[in-house]
Fold this sequence. Notes:
By secondary structure, this protein is mainly α. It has a single domain (53-281), classed as MetI-like (MetI-like fold), CATH 1.10.3720.10. It is built from 13 helices and no strands. It has helices at residues 3-12, 19-48, 53-61, 63-96, 102-114, 117-128, 135-140, 149-175, 178-185, 190-219, 222-228, 238-247, 251-287. α4 (63-96) packs parallel to α8, α6 packs across α8 and α8 packs across α10 (190-219).
Amino acid sequence: MSAPQKVIRRARAGTTEAPWVRWTLITLALLFMFLFLVLPLAAVATEALRKGFGAYVEALKEPDAWSAIRLTLITAAIAVPLNLVFGVAAAWAIAKYEFRGKAILTTLVDLPFAVSPVVAGLIYVLVFGAQGWIGPWLAAHDIKIIFAVPGIVLATVFVTFPFIARELIPLMQSQGTDEEQAAIVLGATGWQTFWRVTLPNIKWGLLYGVILCNARAMGEFGAVSVVSGHIRGQTNTMPLHVEVLYNEYQSVAAFAVASLLAILAVVTLVIKSVIEWRHEREMKAIAELPPERPPAA
Length: 297
């Protein structure tokens, strides 16, 4: 094969590198995924079923395990809708409007990415704890935040807040405001503009952000560990319950609960892939639409 033909072939493949370079990079990527993704998942499944399927089921039927599963689902069911509302509102304000303090709001959205989850949990203890800023007032009114479900929800909301907003902000900024302005000129109200123009344009990014937010909410450990108090059967989520079981040398039970988290992670990846696939199909269908002809004079 002549040199020009090789160049043309590589250009069609989307790269100018030699084939051995491409296959080396692919092999390294697959090896990395096997070592850090496939192998750990296989180890979790193997350890969970080491004493048989019956022991696996018994570990999941244990009351403390059910309590941890239930609390994890409740926390995610509260935190994700709250972050859905907050994230859409923040993204809409940042992407569609110009106002004083916009840079500060953008920084606050990114704050949970910069702050350690453990530090975030300590902040909530400082504010709502028995010796905290408003702890005595809460105790006087018999309101429990720390070492109770509200504290776990607050900590989870904090660490998962950026996922939806950060997914939507660049998407909304790239779309601009032309369609919203056209809808308002035609007489649409603010809510009509949002439901019929803005929301359909961001639906895939919104779903993607919700999936990531939900996955982080169910798997959060650091912040929840600080504010929960590790009360078995009451304030232990699934990650905390796994730690307790493992520290007590109940490895089969620990890996059984951990396998549920692994299954949830795999389901999250599958849903994410389906959403990306459908989004690509929709964009491809839109790109293949024939251009509109100008109206005849």
